[in-house]
TrEMBL record:
Keywords: Cell membrane, Membrane, Transmembrane, Transmembrane helix. It is found in: Cell membrane; Membrane. The keyword Acetylation does not apply. The keyword Transmembrane helix applies. Residues 308-323 have a biased composition (Low complexity). This is Probable membrane transporter protein. Pfam families: TauE.
Length: 329
């Protein structure tokens, strides 16, 4: 029972972060499942089965607030589903001993990316409203879907920063469109795993626990994004992923220095870097706030119906850069 409660809490926390940043549900949940000894293919399958429900709930929430660009959803989601199915097939055919360090290495890379990206740069909004083309979205979806299935997460960490870095879609629609398209990816990856390994190693009670936590968190994510800066959240979750997967790699046959002074030294150094990164992110957020820019992932989820255009941060950013002027009516 304690394990089930822990999984539900992890699902809740991971969905709160994912719903705010458009990433990290799969990476965070899979990292925990690997840490408690779950077979890599079964861990990824468990998370993707739970994500069918959580991504549906998240997608509906974003649609109600007008945060979804359906053209982007289809152009990135369909190739993403193809990539996810292929990734599930590849992971299912790797032995557990070979797959666990491979998956941990992928997760470590994603964790480092999250930590560096959000600590040093935050999220970008500098090239909005230029068109996003299929020749960019289709390869992005294929790669992100493949990484998502093989790494147990990665759709958001690959897709969200790529779309934000393009600067062609406002942040609220990047997050909403990535979260919504992930529903297609979760279905495809789940089918790939079920066809390749059946239900072997999949504990459906764990699936239900992750799902329940995620479903509870989905409507709360809009509240969280107002209260906790996305930049700080990104640094925090990135550090957890780096720390946990470094420990897994150190204890693997690849390295073999588990439970030694060397391991403790490495993990202690990472923990210090993580604390420093969070501190930096908090200070950077406060500096932006003092400059009138606030947090670039904040979205005003005011009362709105499907397809409505809620206020976003871009007007505030533009106002911060403009010369002061007296208010007019």
């Amino acid at each position: 029972m304690p394990a089930i409660v822990l999984l539900a809490l992890v699902g809740l926390a991971a969905q709160l972060v994912d719903g705010s940043l458009g990433m990290a549900y799969g990476v965070t949940s899979t990292t925990l499942l690997l840490a408690i000894g779950t077979n890599p293919a079964a861990a990824s399958a468990t998370v993707h089965l739970a994500e069918i429900g959580t991504t549906l709930a998240s997608g509906v929430s974003h649609w109600k607030f007008g945060n979804v660009d359906w053209k982007v959803v289809l152009r990135v989601g369909v190739p993403g589903a193809i990539g996810a199915f292929a990734g599930a097939t590849v992971l299912s055919n790797l032995s557990t001993d070979a797959a666990k360090p491979v998956m941990s290495l992928i997760l470590l890379g994603l964790g480092v990316y999250l930590l560096v990206r959000f600590t040093l740069k935050g999220l970008r909004t500098d090239r909005l409203h230029l068109p996003l083309r299929s020749r960019f979205l289709a390869p992005l979806g294929l790669v992100a879907g493949f990484v998502d299935a093989t790494g147990g997460g990665g759709w958001g960490p690959v897709g969200t920063p790529a779309l934000l870095a393009s600067g062609r879609l406002e942040p609220r629609k990047v997050v909403g469109s990535i979260d919504t398209s992930e529903f297609l990816v979760a279905i495809a990856a789940s089918l790939g795993f079920l066809l390749a390994i059946g239900s072997q190693g999949i504990d459906f009670t764990w699936v239900a626990a992750l799902l329940v936590g995620g479903l509870i968190a989905a409507p709360l994510a809009a509240w969280l994004v107002r209260k906790v800066p996305g930049r700080v959240l990104g640094s925090a979750v990135g550090g957890v992923i780096v720390l946990t997967n470094t420990r897994t790699l150190l204890r693997s046959d690849w390295v073999g220095v588990g439970d030694t002074p060397t391991e403790r030294l490495v993990l202690g150094a990472i923990a210090l870097v993580w604390i420093a990164a969070i501190t930096w992110s908090v200070r950077a957020y406060r500096h932006d706030l003092a400059a009138g820019r606030g947090d670039i992932v904040a979205v005003d989820h005011g009362a709105a119906g499907p397809g409505a255009e809620p206020a976003s941060v871009e007007p505030a950013l533009a106002a911060a850069d403009a010369d002061p002027a007296p208010p007019t009516r």
